[in-house]
Amino acid sequence: MTYYYVVNEANKEMTGPIELPITPGIGIQVPGNVIELAEQLPPAEPGYAWVWRNGIASQLIDLRNTIVYYKDTGMASYWSELGPLPDYLTSKARPGEYYVWKNNDWELDLEAQRAAFVAQAEIERDKRLQEVVIRVAPLQYAYELGEASSDQLTVLQVWKRYALKLANIELQPDYPLSIDWPVAPAKLVVSPSV
Hints:
Blueprint lengths: L1 E5 L7 E5 L3 E2 L3 E2 L5 E4 L10 E6 L2 E6 L4 E5 L5 E4 L9 E2 L8 E4 L2 E4 L1 H35 L5 H18 L27
Pfam family, one: Caudo_TAP
Organism: Pseudomonas tensinigenes
InterPro entries: Phage_T4_Gp38_tail_assem
């Protein structure tokens, strides 16, 4: 006879074979967490473990101590159970933020990626346009009051052209995945007209 421990009540994982001590005058006593088999089991296949379920020794896939991923969010989790993963988990890591689980694999959601890139581009464009407003306002006031020098008018035109280029970034062929940002005009110190 061959003896095996059933080490985890939930998983019913088997370890062994083990030798039980012989008690003088009584013989071998089999504890409640030990099973007796007629033959020794072969080693479990790689990635599997022996379990005792419904009175039968069988092998179950062993993915314990691995990181698994939720198919709905891509969030990682630590897996500690024997057997196949439930349908809502996968062992494949989510390759990036804009991937969704579809057809038993992660697929790039182009619409979500584009929407996120557009939002990022608009934030960056608006930040740059804020600087334009700060630079243009005093020059525009000088122009409207008829007090702008020719240098100030030149600088005003340069900043306005820059603002127009920023406003038209979505016309670039690879927008929003790739943006050729216009270069801001050098911050010129222009003396006011006297």
